[in-house]
Amino acid sequence: MRERTCAIIVIGNEILSGKVQDTNAYFATRELRKLGVTLKRIAVVPDELDAIAEEVAYCAARFEFVLTSGGVGPTHDDITMEGVARAFKRKLVIHPELERLIHQHFADRVNAAGLKMAEVPDGAVLNATHDLRFPTVQLENVYILPGIPQIFEPKLLALAGRFATDPYYIHVIYTTAGEGAIAEHLNTCLKSYPDLMLGSYPRVGDPEYRVKLTLESKDHDYLERAFSHLLELLPKEVVVKTE
Amino acid sequence: MRERTCAIIVIGNEILSGKVQDTNAYFATRELRKLGVTLKRIAVVPDELDAIAEEVAYCAARFEFVLTSGGVGPTHDDITMEGVARAFKRKLVIHPELERLIHQHFADRVNAAGLKMAEVPDGAVLNATHDLRFPTVQLENVYILPGIPQIFEPKLLALAGRFATDPYYIHVIYTTAGEGAIAEHLNTCLKSYPDLMLGSYPRVGDPEYRVKLTLESKDHDYLERAFSHLLELLPKEVVVKTE
Fold first, then answer.
1. CB contacts, 8 Å: A30 with chain B
2. What is the ipTM of this complex?
3. What's the pTM value of the predicted model, to 2 decimals?
4. What angle do CA A158, A148, B183 make, to 5 degrees?
5. Residue in B45, B110, B186 closest to A76 by CB
6. Which of A67, A90, A108, A213 is most exposed, with minimal Cβ within 10 Å?
7. What's the pLDDT score for residue B218?
């Protein structure tokens, strides 16, 4: 199966000023990995039209799909819809189905600010599932999700089916050697297995190991051969555990 | 005092694949805020030369300074130095002082992989302080920090003095009203105080409040006037606490 690539754009001054710690990007990162999607980029941008539009245009042109998080509520700083619209040179329009849902949900509490949430870029479609109160707005290959984690997470999970592709296979080697001591073995292994995704992650202060090596591939047999090869290259005494 | 702007670039496939959760960006975000620096962008990019070079060039041209995190160890996927060099159209050179420090620290354990850590973009300078084992490499307005949090954090703190500028003043209002109910009051307040940085953060499932409003400015008196004005606009019964 072909590779599916994705980017995540987190929108909000509250993240860049440290007032709120984003958790959506990490949640999405793990979910996308499970689905076999290759996440190529995460960007956190402020509540500024040009910054949003530029980043959305950049990612939408390069990756198969894009998830945005945040900036879709009723307040003055919620300008993601306008930013996405600008990225695709569309105007904002009221979506009749969203307007109906907002009236249905908020009843007589609807005001101008609430109806702002019915505005979408012209041409946007709605992705509805029975377990979501509000559908997820999609324009071209961009899915526009809210920043509140309790809403972002179920909305992403509801979309997961359409993103799924073939998964990565993975092996892990824990070693007591430092990175410098094993770097040449890793390079040798990569010469034989250039398509292997090989990660090397030093850990400080762990009595059990110093470096965690991750080997990944979408080709199961290729991974197994590369894993065996690297285990032969590494001195036996430095390997404490494999997974 | 003038505004100082900054971007953070996190480099590493391990972050984008969810194998490691980045903590450096959030740590830096809070430290920069304390220093009065305006963080305008966070980007997480893969261990790919073009992706690193393109993001570094983008940020270095737009913001006063840039911090990078990750990709500076001895292994095959540590290509941040090369990426930064490419962004500024420089070549990589061995820095004699770094080479000396590596020989001093690793003694007879130095190999080719270890010496790779002495390579820097041509023209880079070293920022040394007495409490750091290795100085922080800087090229133009880009500071190149390692990804391991136990090294990233002290290196950033050692640089803090040169980044500091005038701090933000802040007030917080906690309200039991929903965003939709107060959005128009926020807009009214912003008409009178257009330079106010006004944030509105809904919280789900907290019995104490539904929306946290943050008011910020580098001008203390301006902030006080805007804070009083917004408190007059909001219905008294929805304000549960102010800070």
1. 18
2. 0.77
3. 0.78
4. 125
5. B186
6. A108
7. 81
